[in-house]
Write a structure and sequence with these properties.
The chain is α/β, with parallel strands linked by helices and 237 residues long. Helices cover 30% and strands 18% of the residues. It is built from 7 helices and 10 strands. A 7-stranded parallel sheet has the order 1-10-9-6-2-3-5, with helices on both faces. Strands 4-8-7 form a 3-stranded antiparallel sheet, covered by helices on one side. Strand 9, helix 7 and strand 10 form a beta-alpha-beta unit. It is globular and about 45 Å long. The mean pLDDT is 97. Bound molecules: 2-amino-2-deoxy-6-O-phosphono-alpha-D-glucopyranose. The site of 2-amino-2-deoxy-6-O-phosphono-alpha-D-glucopyranose (GLP) has 14 residues, from helix 5.
Length: 237
């Protein structure tokens, strides 16, 4: 994994933007794997303020809460419309359908979409417990899209966006670690001291399902962009 320590999320966004622009301009970005959360917002702001053209690109999102739809302001579909898709049109945008109650059907549909559209560049954030997408500690490194239960710590961390903690969905559809690992290039962003333990476990502890992001040590092309606070617990910077 290649680590870049940046001053703040603006510098991180600029670095990420330059990598994405180069991939796009060289015809290597046809399928763009996207993430939600507060972390990628500065990157999406930088991209949407630019002249980059995604009309020939397909996007595939990592995950979606189960039980809320695109019109719910905390759904990931709503987030993506707000921060990216309303400003930059794509050829197609794919997200899991949080309103589909037949989990087996929805996971099969999503896995088929990923198989037909191999991801060129995947954007990732990271949870405080090392989760990627919604692959929580303990998740198998061999998983494809699944219905997953959120851990209490993730529910608590994400509650800040909902009216009350009881409103946070308990389940989600998430691309699995194997689906994420199939992306040709991965760019993971992490900002703030709350991510320092996860960044340390991801980069400097042997891969283990205790830290889902540590699976990325086995990927050939991962770029980690972390600010000084998120990188604070690393021994090798
Ligand atoms: C959520 C998402 C992840 C995201 C993580 C961190 O649980 N499923 O994809 O990386 O939260 O969010 P934030 O960037 O807001 O810290």
């Amino acid at each position: 994994m290649k680590l870049f320590v940046v001053k703040d999320n603006q510098e991180g966004a600029e670095l990420g933007y330059n990598i994405i622009r180069e991939e796009l301009e060289n015809g290597r970005l046809n399928v763009f794997g996207l993430a939600t959360g507060s972390t990628p917002i500065s990157l999406y702001d930088r991209i949407t303020a630019s002249d980059l053209d995604f009309t020939n690109v397909v996007s595939i999102n990592l995950d979606e809460y189960i039980g809320i739809g695109a019109d719910h302001d905390q759904s990931y579909h709503y987030f993506m419309n707000e921060h990216f898709f309303s400003k930059k049109p794509f050829k197609a945008n794919y997200l899991p359908n949080g309103l589909e109650t037949d989990a087996a059907k929805e996971c099969a549909r999503y896995n088929a979409i990923i198989a037909e559209n191999p991801i060129d560049v995947q954007i990732l954030g990271i949870g405080e417990n090392g989760h990627i997408g919604f692959n929580e500690p303990g998740a198998s490194f061999d998983s494809l899209t699944e219905k997953v239960s959120l851990t209490e710590s993730t529910i608590e961390a994400n509650a800040r966006n909902f009216a009350s903690i009881d409103d946070v969905p308990r389940y989600a559809y998430s691309m699995g670690i194997k689906s994420i690992m199939s992306a040709k290039k991965i760019i993971l962003f992490a900002y703030g001291e709350k991510k320092a333990d996860a960044i340390h476990a991801m980069l400097e502890v042997a891969p283990s399902t205790d830290c889902p992001a540590s699976a990325l040590q086995n990927h050939a092309d991962v770029i980690v962009i972390a600010d000084e606070k998120a990188a604070a617990k690393l021994t090798n910077k």
